[in-house]
Every structure is written in structure tokens, then in C-alpha cells.
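Reopening this one. Same input as before:
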Amino acid sequence: FGIGEILLTMEEGLNFRGKPAKINARVVWDTWKELPRYWATSLRSCLIGVWMGVSPAGATPASFMSYGIAKRMSKQGKNFGKGEIEGVVAPETAAHAAGTAALLPMLSLGVPGSPTAAVLLGGLLIWGLQPGPLLFVEQKEFVWGLIASMYLGNFVGLIVVLTCVPLFAAILRIPFSIIAPVILVLCAIGAYTVHNNTFDVVMMMVFGVAGYVMKKCNYPMAPLVLAIVLGDKAEEAFRQALLGSQGSLGVFFSNGLVGSIMTLGLIALFWPLISNGWARLSSRAPKTAM
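Same output, byte for byte:
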């Protein structure tokens, strides 16, 4: 994404495009009044985030998956990325839900669901607290205090974000000729630190150019990111499930919970075909009646 955006911005003339906006209490209140209209998107994104957080997969894949599904199912999907509020509600709701849900396997099983949860797990072990089922019995005051701090953190985060929005927006005033090298260096550092291998930096550049070409051809990059992030985990889980069931695919529909999740996944996969077929049937219905 970083390399692709740099190339696109260079093509557009080395400048950021945007409209001046003011943040005040009235603007925030007017935005909040619109949020109840997107309750279905919020609920769907929340479920996706919880699922991806418990899996564990992380907040980033949850954001991309929620954004992609919302864009498919929304009547205003063509306006996503152009200021449509629903396009912001979907990924942000999923990211927050995934970040919180990632703490569930960490507290109950001792398995961190995200890098942040892994850091918290290390802190608990340093203080002599062993995450697991017994933690809810032996240290229930700590557990419920931690859960309460999550709600408090949401309110504090809201105040901090509203206060710092003008500072974040001021970054756009920095010339792109300064920001672009910084972004490029951060991308290279992030790619190199995964395996401490320069080959990863080369692959970053290759996929950056590929992302630029995909954007120019109007191909969505979210499915590619999901495949890269979750592909190995999905293959490993699929292999383990088949080994446990001796090669039977019926294990994916062995009970109501698993069957429901698989059904929802298949519906999301084939939703474009379903929606197009439904639209064609709806358009032919009046002609048939006449």
C-alpha cells in the first residue's frame, strides 16, 4: 500500500488533495446523529471483528474484510473512499472489536490474539499472573478490573482523538517530497524486521509496484492483503481439520456453530453473484406480471 500510494501521488503531481474542514462540537454531534443509520453495518463489522480477533487474525485483516463486505453490500459502495461515512464505520468498528476480542484467548487460554495482547501476556507473566481459566477464579478482581479499564479506555481515547485531530491533519501540510522518503524508509524497516532478510525488502518493492498497477486497473487490493496475511493460517487450520477428521469435509458442518460460520462465509463469498441474480429477477418481475 505504501509504495503504491507513493507512486500514485507522484503521478498526480506530488501533492495531497483534500478539502479544508473544521472540527467543532457541532460537526461531531451532526456526525453522531448519522451513525444510527448504519446500525446494520456496525453490527456486521462488530461480529467480523470479534471473529477475527478470537481466531486470532488481528485488527488489520478484520478491517479489510469488513470494508470489502460493506462495499459489496452497501447501496453506496461506489462512494467508498470518497467521503462516505459507511466506508469509515465498517473498518473502524471491526478494528476496535478485533483488538478487544484478541484479549479473550489471551486471558482464557494464554494464547495472544494480537501483538498487543502478546505484550500484555508478557507483562502478566512478569507480575506472576498466569493467564488461563484459573485466572478468572484466583485473580477475578484483576480480570474484571482489566475489563472495566477497556470501557474507560474508549472514553479516554475519544477525548484524545478529538483533541489531536487538528495535529494529525497538519501532517498533510508537510511537502510530499519530505513525507515520501519517510514512508519508504518505514515500509523498508517493517519488511526487513520480519525475518531480517533483504529479500523481503525486494519483495516489498515488487508488490508495491503490483499494487500500483492494480489501483490503476481498478482492482481491489483488500482480497490480496487478506490472502497474504491469512493464507498460511487458513491452510494450516484446514490441514489440521482434515487430519482430525481423517479427510472428511463434513467436519466443517459438524455442529451448529461451525455450520453457521461456514454458511456465512460461503454467503459472503458468493454475495456478488447472489445480489446480481436477485437484481435480474427483480427487473424481470414487472414484465412477467404484464
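So the earlier flakiness isn't reproducible anymore. For the record, The radius of gyration is 22 Å.
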